[in-house]
Amino acid sequence: MTKGGPVTISNYEEVAIYPLDPEVKEQLLTEQNECCFIWGPKDHWAVGVMMSYVWRDGSFWLTATTQRKRIAAIRRDPRVSVVVSGKGTSVGEARTVTAKGRVVLHEDDATKEWFYPALSERVLQAYPAMDQLREMFTQMLDSERRVVIEVVPEKWITYDASKLMADSVQAWAAQAQEAAEGASAEAGDP
């Protein structure tokens, strides 16, 4: 719902008035483990792929190997976007977060040592009794050409459809009330 006052919507042209509350945004980023990672290649035709991520210390952490075209692209231009949906989380599918940010590439062992196990845990969280699987996944990540991608957000775009729906219900009720009052006035009722 819009903050304070009467319902002000009459159409859906301006949905920026329905951002996620900060605690819901944080919950979504922490619960979800998959995002759409978007970058700009040489031909300037934006490309996005679904990737697993870890949300830590205010950054998105992902990984790829250096032969992937996205690595050459982000070395050329580190400006990227990350889109996270609430689908499959307790936050609900009608909530989203988009972050515009810049990439910092990490190739150091210290980053890889914390990140690979953290990513394994996030990706395989549905299999809590599979410690051996997580260990094997972590080992497989540790390859020669692999780098860690940190996306440091600079701008946020969030959306909470539950707020839009709450305002919509109020707007529809107000329209129904106005119609009923109009019909009553036409019929001559006081």
What does this entry show, briefly?
By secondary structure, the protein is an alpha+beta fold. It is 37% helix and 29% strand. The chain has a single domain, classed as Electron Transport, Fmn-binding Protein, Chain A (Pnp Oxidase, Chain A, Roll).
Per-chain topology:
Elements: H1 22-31, E1 34-39, E2 47-52, E3 54-56, E4 59-65, H2 69-76, E5 79-85, E6 95-106, H3 109-123, H4 131-141, E7 146-160, H5 161-186
Antiparallel strand pairs: 1-2, 1-5, 3-4, 4-7, 5-6, 6-7
Helix pairs in contact: 3-4
Structural class: alpha+beta
Number of domains: 1
Task: Please count the helical segments.
Answer: 5
CATH superfamily: Electron Transport, Fmn-binding Protein, Chain A
CATH arch. level architecture: Roll
Helix content: 25-40%
Low-confidence parts? none
CATH domain class name: Mainly Beta
Strand order of the largest sheet: 2-1-5-6-7-4-3
Radius of gyration: 23 Å
Note the beta-strand portion: 25-35%
Number of extended strands: 7
Q: What's the end-to-end separation, in Å?
A: 33 Å
Overall form: elongated
Mean pLDDT: 87
Query: What is the N-to-C succession of helices and strands?
Result: HEEEEHEEHHEH
Features:
Pnp Oxidase, Chain A, 37% helix, seven-stranded antiparallel beta sheet, alpha+beta, single chain, 5 helices, 190 residues, 7 strands, 29% strand
